[in-house]
UniProtKB/TrEMBL annotation:
Signal peptide (UniProt feature, chain positions): none
A Pfam family: ABC_tran
Family from the record: Belongs to the ABC transporter superfamily.
Keywords, in A-Z order: ATP-binding, Nucleotide-binding, Transport
Protein name: ABC transporter ATP-binding protein
Coiled-coil ranges (or none): none
Keyword DNA-binding: no
Single GO term (MF): ATP binding
Xref: SMART domains: AAA (SM00382)
Length: 428
């Protein structure tokens, strides 16, 4: 069973879209971002104001929808889920902790914690047992009869965590949870989150504070609406990880924006940030990556290329970036077989809504299978021919190559797939 909980491919979020082309450009909060969350991860997301941190968190947690791209949550495409399915998913799988604890002021601490399971129609005994257990874990059992205005900021935030955990969610999303706390209470809060993570609760945390980020296993740094750097703690202690995080932030201060002649400090020269990797698992085969294939001599669609992860083919050398932002390279001469299949997803365009088909391409080697999902359209037939020239066997049970020969334009080919591959379409 896969450990991947959430997978985002090439997601973009556009605010105030320039539909009438008056400005000549769109305002991107996120631009072509790839993200993968596995069970047991503890990821901190950092970046300057306006870099897209909260927007990314909202899209991953289903509170907002991306303008472009695809998000899968627990193996299900977000675009295919109905509102009632999303509500049930949030209730069962997710917990939320915000900068302002957002407690209900006219409810007691007990009732605030119990609110999510009261909505779930559980018995009074079950509710009481769960609330007391959670309050004891977070050391707030003595304030259950108080109201939020009678409690300190740290107590209110721990109450918010108790409320987020009362259904034992698999993922906790935290948006600046220590923003209104002093250093002592911030440390207590992060210690609690770290213990939860040790017990397999997955955590995604947005923060401006490097110290807070150093409690995580992975730090992802956003800049100009995209992921710029990803570093993993690995075996480093918290102080060493904090130094790495500070180096990343230091390189992106306004000082470096305006004066490129200034050299990094000695600490950044001594400590080279490590790219994120996965222990006991080859980074090349962790998940399927959506790509747009590019090769010299074949004309590319610039609009697709601009909003896609590029897979470059130079001779027989292939390189691309996977969903965990690792650089992947392999040689087509090492590929034993190429397997092609189709996948379909529903694209909402109002009255023009329809199912869109994409090609799944599996490049089988002795090391493993490079799993790709292609955004190429009319130009893909050239790549099929190239695979034949290299004498790579192609397994094509859905006769994709034949379809490209018979229907060379994308529109007619998509209509043909809708007629002939109804097993991929689930009309509701």
């Amino acid at each position: 069973m896969s450990n991947i909980l959430i997978e985002a491919n090439n997601i973009s979020k556009i605010y105030d879209p320039d539909i009438l082309l008056k400005r000549g450009k769109n305002i991107y909060a996120l631009n072509n971002v790839n993200f993968e969350l596995q069970k047991g991860d503890f990821i901190s997301i950092m970046g300057p104001s306006g870099s897209g941190k909260s927007t990314l968190l909202n899209c991953l947690s289903t509170l907002d929808n991306p303008s472009r791209g695809d998000i899968q949550i627990f193996g299900k495409h977000l675009s295919r889920m109905r509102k009632d399915e999303l509500c049930e998913f949030r209730y069962q799988k997710l917990g939320f902790v915000f900068q302002n604890h957002n407690l209900i002021p006219y409810l007691s601490i007990y009732d605030n914690i119990a609110a999510p399971i009261i909505l779930g129609h559980q018995s009074k005994k079950e509710i009481e047992a769960k609330v007391l257990e959670m309050a004891k874990t977070l050391e707030i059992e003595k304030i259950l009869d108080k109201f939020p205005h009678e409690c300190s900021g740290g107590e209110c935030q721990r109450t918010a965590i108790a409320r987020a955990l009362i259904n034992h969610p698999e993922i906790i999303f935290c948006d600046e949870p220590t923003g209104n706390l002093d250093s002592k209470n911030s440390h207590k809060l992060l210690t609690i989150l770290s213990k939860l993570n040790q017990n397999d609760t997955t955590i995604v945390l947005v923060t401006h504070d490097p110290m807070i980020a150093s409690y995580a296993k992975t730090m992802m740094y956003l800049y100009d609406s995209g992921i710029k750097t990803v570093i993993q703690r690995n075996q480093a202690n918290q102080r060493e990880f904090l130094d790495q995080i500070n180096d990343i932030i230091h390189q992106d201060t306004l000082l470096f924006e305006f004066d490129k002649t200034i050299q990094p400090t000695s600490s950044s020269q001594d400590t080279k940030p490590q790219q994120m990797n996965i222990q006991n698992q080859d980074i090349a085969f962790v998940s399927r990556q959506t790509v747009y294939m590019v090769m010299d001599g074949i004309e590319s669609d610039e609009n697709i290329l601009k909003n896609s992860t590029s897979l470059y083919i130079e001779g027989t050398h292939v390189k691309y970036t996977n969903v965990r932002n690792d650089d992947i390279e392999f040689d087509l001469q090492d590929i034993q077989e190429i397997r092609m299949n189709l996948t379909a997803h529903f694209q909402s365009f109002g009255i023009f809504s329809q199912y869109i088909f994409n090609i799944q391409l599996d490049c089988v080697s002795e090391k493993g299978i490079y799993k790709l999902k292609l955004k190429n359209r009319d130009d893909f037939i050239h790549f099929i021919h190239y695979f034949h020239q290299l004498h790579i066997p192609v397994d094509d049970p859905r006769h994709i190559e034949e379809t490209y020969q018979q229907y060379p334009d994308d529109y007619s080919r998509q209509k043909y797939y809708q007629r002939t591959h109804k097993d991929l379409i689930k009309y509701k």
